[in-house]
Write the structure tokens for this entry.
Amino acid sequence: MALTLDKIETLAPDQASLAAARKLLKASSWPGLFAGSDGLVWGECQGSGSTPYRVVVQTEDLGYKCTCPSRKFPCKHSLALMWIRAEGKIGFAEAAPPEWVTDWMRRRRSGGGARPQGADGGQEQQETKSMAAALAVEEAPADPKAEARAAAARERSRRDREEAILAGLDDLDTWLADQLDTGLAGFATQARKSCATLVQRLVDAKASGLASRLEALPGRLLALPEQRRGTAAVAELGQFNLIAQAYRRQDALPTELRESVRRTVGWVQTRNELLDDPQARRVDGSWRVTAVLSEVQPDRLRRLETWLMREDSGETHASAMLIDFVPVSTGPARSPYSIGERLKATLVYYTSPAPLRAQIAVMDSPASTTGDAIAFPAHSLGQALDAYDRALAVEPWLDRWPLSFSNCRVRESGKRLWLLSLNEDGSAVPLSDGQTASAAPLACVDRLDGFGIWNGSALELTAAETALGRWETQ
């Protein structure tokens, strides 16, 4: 069955899906487009988050699959991939199918894959659908007066938000002073109640980033041993004061630090704005997935993190973090990547004195599963911690940092597990309390190289290579 525009039109669930797919018919929406044999095409389509959606289409029988949470079948990403292939205006790189594509093909052969809906006439069409109508929807010609009015409105909105944020920071100052007057010895046990009112005030002040950080504070404190909570509360509240003071003085800060504090408070830079920024740091190379984390936030959004490590860089820090937010209401969701996968891509980093968060700009080859061990850089745990200290010195509100290391071992002390360096520096860091059971088997091996996320007080180990094979967090 050859892929044609007429068949795509028939397959679409509604006109709105065709209109949405039309907006994705540009190369910039697809970091990578690839083709295999027997009509198989796949790609990664950039959504609103940092991690692209994985889309695969079998053009011979119109089978499809996408990792997006859409409840329309096929979704706009699948329709767009078919549309691009049928038109032939954008090239596809020839490549061998990666594991996620071959896995979908195996499940299809066994009857577990997605079936094209509407292709066999089993779904009654409720409305007329037209690709021509979708293409005919063009933006109105530019009106200089309308553009000037829109620009003025955006500037007014920006000024209003700046004023609202500064007022929210004044409330934060008052709240911090109240906590100091009350005393911080028992702050952790009352933190949830103490923070709740100010969190809502910061949301109203459009300082959403600061509000999310404060909302997570009680959980961070209660996760610590009781004897450490008071000291941690002082450090945490000190960071809030530091952020507020830096924001008020942002015009005097270096550009990188200014952008960092604005992003921490809640300003957002879109993907297109980032890609269009000629000053943004771009790094290409071969990357390995070293961590895949999922956390449900108090605002009922699931935060998905994919951590990448650049291979063969030799640097103490050559990592990137991709972040996505998915509503919990859409059901279970996870990163499309798995620990150990390799991808060759160009990443673009958000402006920061210690660049970490990034977006995938271009994929030179599809992400693929490989059986070889992850080659962690040959530097010690002490050197990795030194890199963290340097990052903290230039971005003092940094809350987490990637540590990649070699030549270490895990040992138990009291009720905690510790990661110990076998090098002469003798460095040691505690593992997160939540990993006491899952990481316990690592105490049986003499040596490991690995990767983890360090928050300044505990390490969340995510991947390790040992003589017995790879260990990874569950």
